[in-house]
Write a structure and sequence with these properties.
- The chain has about 350 residues and is an alpha+beta fold.
- Among the domains are: about 80 residues; about 160 residues, 2-Layer Sandwich (Heat Shock Protein 90), CATH 3.30.565.10.
- Helix content is about 60%, strand content about 15%.
- It is rod-shaped and about 135 Å long.
- The structure holds adenosine-5'-triphosphate (ATP) and magnesium ion.
């Protein structure tokens, strides 16, 4: 019942009762009886007034007490309680508004936590990937300084690689600047339709140059048609390949290391396989290697550095491309990482 209705009822009861009793008392000619009526009237008025006040007080005090407790919880930072709305009066409406406000605050707080977590993740992903080109540039510059690039062709290749690596860094830093400006943690992917054969051909050239300087053999085999096109963000896909190949280099335990790259057509997708003959991954670890911060046998791996986020970045990027990634491996023999990216299909136009 509405508070206003309760007050109106109380008002009329208090007004009507004395009127009735006064009328009755006036029509009673016996003074003794009239005095008795007056006494009864006083008692009844007293009890009725007390009951009415209690009735109104309870309607007001209970929701106010509940709201007071709720406000205290919010003050202490707890948004996980529920304010039960039991009446439909004005205070019930106020409690409902309070409950809506709590739900809104809770949603905002959860969103902020998620945003902060993604923000941290993003910055650590970019810092992770920035390390690779920096190390490579340092390596090539040292090579030039030590006279390893002793022919004009070699010098040319070294300079070209340094330039490419500096470009990669530039893109990552641009990404970081962009994130700090926009209010979202989603990578603004720049999908384009490109020729698969050209793209992976270029990648394989870069990799062969990089791996040669590290004394690792590299083989590239391509089984796709010349006109095959893929829809990818070329820079993000490079991050995927770089991360996988860096792992192959990092976990290589053979003196004659060998890395292979294969590209094949699998219907609606193009499948890329990057294999190595490194130390391999135990079957029990395989399902977890794409989890963030997961490193196999941390104590044995600690000498290799790393935080266990490389493959989580890879997985995220491949999935954002509408593809998926998996690994096959045999301990002491090597690992193959395979992933697929969408092929561009030309829709036949009806004649
Ligand atoms: N080619 C590989 N050969 C052997 N083990 C691998 C290979 N690739 C990944 N792993 C195992 O999977 C784990 C997870 O790889 P991931 O790239 O996510 O992290 P990381 O290389 O340890 O660290 P980070 O990439 O952050 O520097 C590695 O710790 C390693 O044990
Ligand atoms: Mg790694």
């Amino acid at each position: 019942m509405k508070l206003k209705t309760r007050l109106v009822i109380a008002f009329f009861t208090i007004i009507i009762l004395p009127t009735i009793f006064t009328t009755v008392a006036l029509h009673t000619y016996d003074p003794k009886q009239a005095s008795e009526i007056q006494q009864t009237y006083l008692i009844i008025i007293f009890i009725t007034a007390a009951l009415l006040i209690l009735w109104i007080y309870r309607a007001v005090s209970i929701p106010i007490k509940k709201m007071q407790e709720a406000a205290q919880q919010i003050k202490e930072g707890n948004l996980n309680f529920e304010l039960k709305v039991e009446s439909e009066d004005e205070l019930g409406q106020l409690s409902q508004d309070f409950e809506d406000m709590r739900l809104r605050l809770k949603a905002n707080a959860e969103e902020k936590v998620k945003f902060d977590r993604e923000n941290k993740e993003l910055i650590s992903n970019i810092s992770h990937d920035l390390k690779t080109p920096i190390t490579a540039i340092k390596g090539y510059v040292e090579g030039i300084k030590d006279g390893v690039a002793d022919t004009p062709e070699k010098m040319d290749r070294y300079i070209k690689t340094i330039y490419n690596k500096a470009n990669e860094m530039d893109l990552l830093i641009n990404e970081l600047t962009l994130y700090s400006k926009i209010d979202t943690n989603r990578i603004p992917y720049n999908f384009t339709t490109i020729s698969a054969i050209d793209y992976f051909g270029d990648c394989s050239e870069d990799l062969s140059m990089e791996l040669e300087s590290k004394g690792i053999e590299f083989h590239y085999h391509n089984e796709i048609r010349d006109d095959c096109k893929i829809i990818v963000d070329t820079e993000q896909l490079r991050r995927v390949i770089n991360n996988i190949v860096n792992n192959s280099i990092k976990y290589m335990d053979k003196p004659s290391g060998c890395i292979t790259m294969g590209v094949k057509d699998v219907g609606d997708f193009v499948q890329i396989e990057l294999g190595d003959n490194g130390k391999g991954i135990a079957a029990k670890d395989l399902p977890n290697i794409f989890d963030r911060f997961y490193r196999t046998d941390a104590s044995r791996n600690s000498s290799k550095g790393g935080s266990g986020i490389g493959l989580s970045i890879v997985k995220k990027i491949v999935e954002e491309h509408g593809g998926n990634i998996w690994a096959t491996s045999r301990e002491d023999e090597g690992t193959t990482m395979s992933f697929v990216v969408r092929k561009y299909q030309e829709v036949p136009v009806d004649e």
